[in-house]
Fold these 2 entries.
Entry 1:
Amino acid sequence: MGKNNITIILAPLQGFTDVTYRNVFSDHFSGVDEAIAPFISTMGQMRLKPSRIKDVAPENNKKLFVVPQILGNIAGDFIFLADHLYDMGHKKVNWNLGCPHSKIAKKKRGSGLLMYPEKIDAFLDTVLSKISNTLSIKLRLGRKSKNEIFNLLPILDKYPLDEIILHPRTGIQMYEGTSDHDAFGKALYSSRHNFTYNGDITDLNSFLLVQKKFPHIKRFMIGRGILSNPFLAERIKGIGQNKDKIERLKIFHDDLFNNYKTIFSGPGHLTGRMKGFWSYLGPSFKESKKGLKKILKATSTHKYQYVVEEFFNTDYKFIE
Ligand SMILES: Cc1cc2nc3c(=O)[nH]c(=O)nc-3n(C[C@H](O)[C@H](O)[C@H](O)COP(=O)(O)O)c2cc1C
């Protein structure tokens, strides 16, 4: 928790906030209290993808409390996976009703299910009577319209839920436009459940704005804002750090790189993963476009390391 009794939760970001990132991040930065892991898809009964399960294995997740997230719409498959996670030690699971990608939504998964409140009702009726874990839901306002949520909230009120994590955009909006604070407020006051706010907290001011608008909200989920500025949770909580920021970022980067080096076999995979982080982190360095371009163009591991070194040695100013 910390300052103002607020909890900061690292958002699930598929391809970014995996167990390696979560552990390395926790070694270098504070202020983040919990994380939801990137989604694990249901695969049909009796089938599990070992790499996805490994990502949430409690023995690998001792540094940051993690809640596994499940993506799926078939009650039996969900129960099978949730039971497996329970046996591993996960008392809580999260259901993904927010994924905006059309390939997933077309199959009535993620935000694609939000247009079918009766299916969500039937799903929860079956699942919640069978699983041993408690359940939270992460969702958007709707698939196509921001009003869809108002047909769903009375249904969700019937069930015990840990919390509702709401990212106030529609699915088809993807990440366009801004998070709709008015719609978040309306949803918050139309539900009996506890809410966590998620969306576009990118700096101290955007956090303070949300906090001012919703003083009862104590739990905030942040995704891209932390990738862009790993100091953000410390800043929000007023955790002072005297050490040089660029030096801290460099040490963090090197640690992340070395950890991924042990995981990814091909250089393309390794640099590809690291470049993903740079696409968020890089623009936080003032006037660094040229240096960032070199990193994003690096094809070999050797070249990548060389241009990253050069980047950190250039006197770019880190903007929070
Ligand atoms: C690359 C990427 C991957 C994501 N993966 C997931 C995911 O696995 N599960 C999920 O619920 N949301 C996922 N999201 C959505 C984020 O968790 C979050 O809701 C969204 O980015 C808004 O929060 P932010 O503005 O703080 O980033 C993803 C978003 C991005 C950009």
Entry 2:
Amino acid sequence: MSGLTLSGLTVDRGGRPVVRGVSMEIPAGEVTALLGPNGAGKSSLVLAVGGVLRPRAGSVVVDGVNHAGRRPERIRRAGIAVVPEGRRLLPELTVEDNIAVATYALSRPAARAGRAWALELFPELGRRLSAKARTLSGGEQQMVVIAQALVARPRFLLLDELSLGLAPVVVNRLVPVIRQVADEGIGVLLIEQFATVALGLAQRASIMEGGVLRYSGTADDLRASPELLQSAYLLGGARAAAAPPPPGQSHIHN
Ligand SMILES: Nc1ncnc2c1ncn2[C@@H]1O[C@H](COP(=O)(O)OP(=O)(O)O)[C@@H](O)[C@H]1O
Ligand SMILES: [Mg+2]
């Protein structure tokens, strides 16, 4: 199965380029980690792929079709699901309705199947269907956000800041779900501030800094070169590689 290919993607924000000629491949059925300090341009890259920001140059290609510059609905229909950083739920709606909202563009059978799959991935949500979103824990909210992206059964899932603000025990709950999603053939791009979490899940990894990719290669090679990781994070002053991994993290291997 083919991947999602980004070529020469350039994105301007506030009148200056914050993503500069980024090229990368997000293969089907694998997790690709995108690491880098705050301000590197990771979120801008993902927003441009999802059609929220319009890239100034470059292409976003699936099956030979360039989707760059298209509107978010079109890009979703092409099978690219984006979970932006800090995505919020509709707080007064129930879990059931927040999931239903995400199926509006689907046929009834597709919506039913997508909902069933999401609840299979997150059985705990099945027990919270009538709870209002505002009453959920941070971890439960992140599960609903991911479920919303998955109900359409996308071919690619771009996930910005999986673990932001979540307790380690919750992150450990999400990790196997991301792996399962990739095992089902979905190409995942994972932006994750804890390098240990990201590299535990990923087959491939890139480090972004100052709008460009400084490293692209296997996650194994990157795990074996802590200097590279460290330098990328220290340059941006982010808490990251040096932060303690969640308990049990050392058990996670490909
Ligand atoms: N809404 C915005 N307007 C102008 N500049 C922005 C905006 N959001 C982010 N930026 C700038 O774009 C650059 C990349 O930011 P971002 O994509 O959020 O990086 P990351 O996700 O890697 O932390 C930063 O210099 C940031 O200040
Ligand atoms: Mg970001």
